[in-house]
């Protein structure tokens, strides 16, 4: 069975975005880009909520993305993508399927298929739904060395406590710390 | 001059206790936590401790600090009112109750600490005052691998206009907790 892996960048105070959806504080550099290329290559499908989908769909197909990040742009544009939204009318980004309801069933079905693992980037509301359903098999949380003071908290709204087990950490030269966790009972 | 380090244990989703107020999920194995390398280092390098009133009151018997507390140093307790009876002290561990604010407590603690660290052990309110007033040089979060889904948020009530930039110092993995140590980048 394929794993679902949740990857996100956060501040030390646990926000994945600042006020007004600010993500300019993301601490990214050459080492991060190398990591992102390698990581994205591990995945066979991507899941998004509407907000993250719109952000990404507005960037990766553009000429500037193809010029600045050619490898990741190629991966992002060609990988099978699923956007989960009750309100989105259509999804025009290449290789994207719009799922309007039955999110949990759809993800369960995807996990049964053969292929590389499935990733969720950003998409915190969708992630919270999947966490509560026990559908996430791995968490990769990259803590940036900053205290934002305000913003939107990752994991906000989960209904149940969840014990995790730390598998490994990776410290980046720019102070980011990437923590790999799995649910403790797995 | 003593440097100030603030730190607390926190769940991966940012809480220092759960919705019922219990800290049990974050301190499952207290004896093991006391015996970690960062804790031994902290005990060795700490010259004075600052704690809030609630943190002080977490010991059922205040006299128990004298013999049992891991930090055998002068302790400065932030409070509005001194307790009626002064708790037991030793030749190393003394209590000073500071009623005129955190800046005053910090000044006294720095003098007592000499060239060692002032360690701020919490609770959340004291931690938040240190962050808001930038009364710290280093920050250590002991990140516990659990999602609590609710409770008291460590970084609540941060009212600074600017982000606080940090510089990663080190990451230490201990059983059941990841110590993330940062230095604050003070923009001049």
How would you characterize this protein structure?
The complex is a heterodimer of chains A (186) and B (188). Chain A has 6 helices and 11 strands. Chain A has 186 residues and is α/β, with parallel strands linked by helices. In chain A, the strands form 2 sheets. An 8-stranded mixed sheet of chain A has the order 5-4-3-6-1-7-11-10. In chain A, strands 2-9 form a two-stranded antiparallel sheet. In chain A, β10 (162-171) and β11 (177-183) form a beta hairpin. The longest helix of chain A has 11 residues, at 30-40. Chain A is globular and about 35 Å long. Chain A starts with a strand and ends with a strand. With 188 residues, chain B is of the alpha/beta class. Helices cover 24% and strands 29% of the residues of chain B. Chain B has 6 helices and 9 strands; from the N terminus they run βααβααββαβαββββ. Chain B has helices at residues 30-34, 37-45, 53-57, 64-68, 102-113, 124-132; strands at 4-11, 46-52, 75-78, 95-98, 117-120, 138-144, 146-147, 164-174, 177-184. Chain B has an 8-stranded mixed sheet, with helices on both faces. The longest helix of chain B has 12 residues, at 102-113. Chain B is globular and about 40 Å long.
